[in-house]
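Recall the central idea of this unit: under ordinary conditions, the amino acid sequence of a chain determines the structure it adopts. In this exercise we apply that idea directly, starting from the sequence alone.
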Amino acid sequence: MPKSNKLNPVEMMKLAAGETAGEKSIKTLSEVINELNKDPDITNRFGQKGLGHRNLGRALQVLLERSETQEGKCMYAGDVFIALESVILDYVTVPEDRTKFLNDLKIARGLHRKNIMTTIFNAYMDEPHAIEKDVINYVNMVIGIDAKNLGPDKIWTYQDPQTGKLIPLKIDEAFIDSVESRLGLGNKEQKQSFRTTISKIYGQKIVKDPNYNFMDNNDLVKAVTEVRLKSDIAGAGSLVGALSNRTNEENQKLYNRVLNTMSNKLGYCKTCALKTIEYFCTHDDEN
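Accordingly, the structure predicted from this sequence is:
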């Protein structure tokens, strides 16, 4: 993705893929594309610079040669970054382009790390959609918290857009505050602004797609995952410790259960499940 003052690389990627990027709209992306396409140097225009098909082919060749690819049934996702990095270093000769591509790769690694945290928690809960349900609960809570018909018991009833059924939901203000603290929202104004944005996105998306689940909001998903990790397992560090140190029977049972859920419910081959757990237990790409 080209550099832009209006959109960061992740926002540009999301909008180009038809996903949500906070309050940034497809109109903003169109403005960025139009501005870039006015550049007399065609290589600076939108979509005119990148690794290209030949280099992507080289990256796939590196992936195919990795031992994990030969052991398992698929190409391990974590090796994608190794393959692309080697291609960038070997075949991208313009220093400015090389630096930008490597920085983009760092962003991608960070997004991958967030996804893995969600995956491992879902596997720990033995529920493929555990975090998705918590994200949706957060969204419905921030919509319902200001509802006029919210009683002293803090129970809010909303209509499920998928089934049309009425669902009672307990507004958990401690959970809401914990998620928003993880998002770095320190004062009332920031929190209210974020809630307004979430409500606005919900109203726009649900009309078109009743199945929209906010899982493309990486920061929100990460915040919810971290809150659940802390409340259910006393933090990611405790789960890392349990999965890393399997010298006692309880930890071994937990490891086997997580591995089994990843293989049987989350679509991982055994090799990718093992490598993903191993990656989760490191501090790689956390920052």
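The two ends are 21 Å apart (CA to CA).
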